[in-house]
Specification:
Blueprint (H helix, E strand, L loop, with lengths): L19 H18 L13 H16 L3 E3 H8 L10 H12 L1 E4 L2 E3 L2 H7 L5
Antiparallel strand pairs: 1-3, 2-3
């Protein structure tokens, strides 16, 4: 791997940039190092304008999983409050929106992972 001679402050600055294969290699090395130190971890990526929706879905899903796969909105709020992926001041509304779109409503104000999501979270192919 080559060493950059000039630090690149952002994507739009001229200078030396890593090639894609170099970026992938650094990512793999970072993941391997992280996996040795942590039993549980998640990966997020930016997909553009709507990428935060995926982060919110993951945070709500992980909260549900940590609460036994089924929880009320009040319980989900408590689990998510200190793990919010954005500084959205209307985060409770976002949690409700994500819960309604991506998880199974089992009663008013109560959601579950649902069988398909539970299956995926256990590391099995859907």
């Amino acid at each position: 791997m080559r060493t950059a001679t000039k630090k690149q402050a952002d994507l739009f600055q001229e200078g030396v940039r890593l090639r894609m294969d170099e970026s992938i290699e650094l990512t793999v090395l970072s993941l391997l190092a992280h996996s040795e130190a942590h039993e549980h971890w998640g990966i997020a990526w930016s997909g553009g304008k709507d990428s935060t929706a995926h982060c919110w879905r993951d945070v709500v899903g992980l909260a549900l999983r940590s609460l036994g796969g089924r929880a009320t909105l009040k319980e989900i709020y408590a689990a998510v409050e200190n793990n919010r992926p954005t500084e959205n001041p209307w985060w409770r509304e976002k949690v409700r929106q994500i819960a309604g779109r991506h998880f199974t409503r089992i009663a008013p104000g109560e959601f579950s992972l649902g069988e398909e999501v539970e299956f995926r979270l256990q590391g099995q192919a859907a």
